[in-house]
């Protein structure tokens, strides 16, 4: 609630509580963590969940069978609820910057990131599909999972194409004949 009031500019002056009649009990990063449900033990559980999810995501970066992105999203969720320190650590990791930073900031993925995610996924699901030759229901499930991934990353997740060609042409200096240099 305080975050919303602060964003609107209606927050109580620092040093007073929401009613404005006493010292604030929670300030800074601890206010966010505390207002989301808990004391030290709960935040420690969130941190443990974050480290477990991060470990599985790191394993997924090495092994094509284990997915990376869902575990890193779960880690981001857990670290955001644990502490500002663990959240900052997670955002500083190379794995976060490589896999999630663009998506988290722009809510979009580059074509390269989508292809890098879908190619190993398709390979693993193709192997699963081939191994389930005598299990038609299993093949149907694998096909639905693959199609759902294609639809989600192809149609739901926005594609970050960077600056458009028109913007590049408009930004290019013109020569004496009116053509780009």
Entry keywords:
DUF454; 2 strands; disordered N terminus; single chain; membrane; mainly alpha; disordered C terminus; two-stranded parallel ribbon; transmembrane; 181 residues; 3% strand; DUF454 domain-containing protein; transmembrane helix
Quick rundown:
InterPro entries: DUF454. The chain is mostly helical and 181 residues long.
Q: How many helices in DSSP terms?
A: 10
Counting helices, strands and paired strands, the structural category is mainly alpha
Pick out the low-confidence regions: 1-35, 165-181
| Strand order across the largest sheet | 1-2
Give the N-terminus to C-terminus distance in angstroms.
54 Å
The radius of gyration is 23 Å
Mean pLDDT across residues: 75
- Biggest sheet architecture: 2 strands, parallel
Which band does the percent of strand residues land in?
under 5%
Strand segment count: 2
Shape: globular
Percent helix, as a range, is: 55-70%
N-to-C series of helices and strands: HHHHHHHEHHEH
